[in-house]
């Protein structure tokens, strides 16, 4: 639980107490109305909600609890120190001052913290945290203008943006939307308000978001007096869809589609070109380009539209874009975005290691996109990539303490190149703090990725210990999962249906257990494993066949039925496509879903480490190292080396690191 030491003693607490009581500006309807929620979904496959899954896992539970107990509070402290909350009060006229902070999207950090805390409330109810969120929401409401507009820096002084790269001319709304981030702030607000409403049943934040969304509906379009424009930094599209799912108001869905339909339209207010995926209509795009975070947020929105409208052209476009990404523009960790310049995808096969960008936000955006694609299609490949990205490119973004962060996530470090916004290791915070707050909103939502259902079919997508209550079309069941994944490939599941009945369980066989590094073929295993996954039901080994990446079990299930699966784990050597110049004559090491790296903290001569056909490799358990990890011990011509899971590197000071090791016979 958060210790709330800041409540009552810090500047934030002063603001909460003083201003959450201001009449006429902060009164909000907080009655619980969750039972009236519409919750429309255009996806055939539905995730099993966070509220229905209780994590007990030795790997993921500590990470989730770290965010709940430490990172959320830490981020609130940082946002207080940097004036994120104060901006809302200044914008609302109850405090005097100039805009605080250095980014036009600082408001979004507040929204993301509320979203993460709301996801936390779903799985770990906490009355004090709920009260704190109500206070923060009251502060947000103070800044909202009468017509619904809400971007604090514009309201405080539209002629003086916090960053010099945000252009102004007349000092009015919607100037230079590519960098103003007004719609980006709104999108994160919608996403957060939707989660808060689902978590608490309260309308206080939702009503703020709906008022703002109604204002957007009136402002943008092709009617008289409306603005023909599209967002600079995408995310309002998925946020609008979330509001549509709750309210059923089609205006929100139509506006999301409008924003997407008019990218590449030369007649609109501004043209952002390739940097913001505005170089051609979205249905004609077939290569992932430009700012990687903007891109995957947009692709997630396109997938929403493809699913809800059953839109063939949108579906074909997202398929082409995804294929281009996994076949030509992705790192072995699942990270995306090769270039610091523009935080962008590079050219096909441009995947440098030392200067890799791989923004944490881009990895999280990729997970959101892949989850949608799975819910749309049921194809195993999307969860294969989602898993790889989560275990490697996402959680590497946060230190084991939970209070230091990577913005970029390279695959190599020389200990000198300051890749992380001026640092060689994780930093406590950033002027642009999108990545820490994105981790906060995402990690507590992980329980919602484990299971999904479609009619009478239950998908088991991720493996982590948990207990879940699941509703299929004609039955309810309790399921418990016990595993030491990712250190061990053995998984036990207890199935307890409310009534004995026939239904289907589809257990994902991870790509690495099917001799596939990841979809797309950009990387492959040097040698094929002959060890096959096994399936046991009620103590009897099954002659199981892997069908499209799943163990598919259709039978009559009874209370007390048990499933055991085993995905044989071993050290795997990965080689890259010959088209990735920098990775030629090199190998990367994997164990299960984890990519490994050699780090100077364990190896005095990182640059001297090589592998060859005589190199012996073994896994050893190190319970006291890096919060408990399995390491790979290598021995080669009397030279020894140690490799650790990539996500855990740079927790012991600055030093060299490599994922790709040279081959030398």
UniProtKB/TrEMBL annotation:
InterPro entries per record: 6-hairpin_glycosidase_sf, Beta-AFase-like, Beta-AFase-like_GH127_C, Beta-AFase-like_GH127_cat, Beta-AFase-like_GH127_middle
Domain Non-reducing end beta-L-arabinofuranosidase-like GH127 C-terminal: 572-662
One Pfam family, short name: Glyco_hydro127C
Domain Non-reducing end beta-L-arabinofuranosidase-like GH127 catalytic as annotated: residue spans: 52-446
Residues in Non-reducing end beta-L-arabinofuranosidase-like GH127 middle domain copies: 457-569
PANTHER family reported for this sequence: DUF1680 DOMAIN PROTEIN (AFU_ORTHOLOGUE AFUA_1G08910)
Name the record gives this protein: Glycoside hydrolase family 127 protein
């Amino acid at each position: 639980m958060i210790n709330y030491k800041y409540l009552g003693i810090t500047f934030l607490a002063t603001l909460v107490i003083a201003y959450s009581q201001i009449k006429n500006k902060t009164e909000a309807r907080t009655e619980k109305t969750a039972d009236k929620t519409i919750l429309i979904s255009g996806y055939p496959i539905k995730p099993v909600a966070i509220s229905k899954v209780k994590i007990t896992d030795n790997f993921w539970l500590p990470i989730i609890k770290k965010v709940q107990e430490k990172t959320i509070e830490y981020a609130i402290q940082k946002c207080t120190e940097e004036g994120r909350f104060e901006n809302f009060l200044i914008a609302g006229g109850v405090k005097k001052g100039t805009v605080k902070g250095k980014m036009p999207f600082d408001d979004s950090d507040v929204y993301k913290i509320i979203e993460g805390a709301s996801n936390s409330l779903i799985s770990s109810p906490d009355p004090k945290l709920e009260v704190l969120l109500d206070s923060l929401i009251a502060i947000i409401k103070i800044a909202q203008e009468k017509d619904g507009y809400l971007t604090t820096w514009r309201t405080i002084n539209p002629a003086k943006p916090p960053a010099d790269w945000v252009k102004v001319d007349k000092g009015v709304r919607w100037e230079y939307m590519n960098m103003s981030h007004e719609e980006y702030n709104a999108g994160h607000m919608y996403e957060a308000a939707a989660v808060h409403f689902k978590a608490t049943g309260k309308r206080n934040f939702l009503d703020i978001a709906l008022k703002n969304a109604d204002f957007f509906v009136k402002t943008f379009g092709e009617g008289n007096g409306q603005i023909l424009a599209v967002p600079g930094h995408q995310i309002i599209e998925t946020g609008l869809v979330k509001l549509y799912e709750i309210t059923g108001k089609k205006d929100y869905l139509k506006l999301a589609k409008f924003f997407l339909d008019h990218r590449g339209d030369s007649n609109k207010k501004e043209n952002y070109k390739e940097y913001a995926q505005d170089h051609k209509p979205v249905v004609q795009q077939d290569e992932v380009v430009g700012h990687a975070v903007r891109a995957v947020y947009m692709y997630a929105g396109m997938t929403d539209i493809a699913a809800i409208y059953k839109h063939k052209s949108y579906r074909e476009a997202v398929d082409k874009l995804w294929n281009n990404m996994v076949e030509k523009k992705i790192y072995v960790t699942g990270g995306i975005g090769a270039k610091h310049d523009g935080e962008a995808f590079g050219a096909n096969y441009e995947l440098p290691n030392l200067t890799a960008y791989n923004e944490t936000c881009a990895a999280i955006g990729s997970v959101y996109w892949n989850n949608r694609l799975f819910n749309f299609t049921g194809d195993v490949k999307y969860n294969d990539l989602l898993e790889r990205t989560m275990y490697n490119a996402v959680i590497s973004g946060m230190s084991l303490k939970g209070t230091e962060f990577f913005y970029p996530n390279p695959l190599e470090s020389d200990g000198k190149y300051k890749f992380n916004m001026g640092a060689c290791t994780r930093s406590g915070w950033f002027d642009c703090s999108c990545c820490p707050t994105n981790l906060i909103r995402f990690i507590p939502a992980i329980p919602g990725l484990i299971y999904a259902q479609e009619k009478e079919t239950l998908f088991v997508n991720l493996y982590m210990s948990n207990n879940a209550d699941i509703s299929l079309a004609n039955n309810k069941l309790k399921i418990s999962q016990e595993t030491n994944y990712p250190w061990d490939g053995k998984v036990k599941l207890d199935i307890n249906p409310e009534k004995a009945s026939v239904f289907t369980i589809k257990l994902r066989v991870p790509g690495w257990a099917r001799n596939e590094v990841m979809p797309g073929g950009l990387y492959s295993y040097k040698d094929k494993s002959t060890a096959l996954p096994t399936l046991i039901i009620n103590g009897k080994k099954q002659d199981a066949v892997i069908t499209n990446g799943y163990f598919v079990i259709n039978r009559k299930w009874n209370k007390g039925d048990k499933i055991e699966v085993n995905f044989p784990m071993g050290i795997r050597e990965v080689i890259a496509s010959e088209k990735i110049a920098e990775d030629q004559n090199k190998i990367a090491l994997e164990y299960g879903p984890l990519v490994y790296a050699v780090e100077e903290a364990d190896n005095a001569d990182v640059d001297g480490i090589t592998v060859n056909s005589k190199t012996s490799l073994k896994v050893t358990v190190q319970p006291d190292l890096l919060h408990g990890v399995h390491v790979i011990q290598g021995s080669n011509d009397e030279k020894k080396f140690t490799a650790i899971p990539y996500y855990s590197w740079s927790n012991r000071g600055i030093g060299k690191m490599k994922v790709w090791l040279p081959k030398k016979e």
